[in-house]
Amino acid sequence: MHDNIYCANMDSNNNWPWPSGSSWVQLSGSLKYYSCGPYSCWGVNKNDQIYIKKDVSDKVCSGSGSFVNIPGALAMIEVATDGRVFGVNSQGMLYQRIGVTRSNPAGTEWRQMTACPSGHKHVSFDLGMLWAVCADGSIHKCSL
């Protein structure tokens, strides 16, 4: 059960309680962190290797094809509803994936950012706001 990957299709997520017959979808592989956006899902394994699953949709969270390794190393990763991707590495450095679009969901490069002078533990982004849990326990909110 550890590091098994599950997703739920958006049509299930938008209806609570879940409609009859809705359930979690198990994917092959093993990841410690998994986050999905409108056209890709990103994950991180126990060795901090980064993976993307392309061609996801509202109805098919499992996508098509297999996971593809992306250069870099992150301890956690988050994908926003607009497709933007952010992550934190094991040293507490914050990164954003640049060049992510519907036609290029893997983007082109990682750009380092700073929201917390003391380093980062966790990050989340949506609706133009970046929320960071800092290494010192404080929480920072940044508009992007």
From TrEMBL:
<dbReference type="GO" id="GO:0030246">
    <property type="term" value="F:carbohydrate binding"/>
</dbReference>
<protein>
    <submittedName>
        <fullName>Fish-egg lectin-like protein</fullName>
    </submittedName>
</protein>
<dbReference type="InterPro" id="IPR006624">
    <property type="entry name" value="Beta-propeller_rpt_TECPR"/>
</dbReference>
<keyword id="KW-0430">Lectin</keyword>
<comment type="similarity">
    <text>Belongs to the tectonin family.</text>
</comment>
<dbReference type="Pfam" id="PF19193">
    <property type="entry name" value="Tectonin"/>
</dbReference>
<dbReference type="InterPro" id="IPR051513">
    <property type="entry name" value="Tectonin_beta-prop"/>
</dbReference>
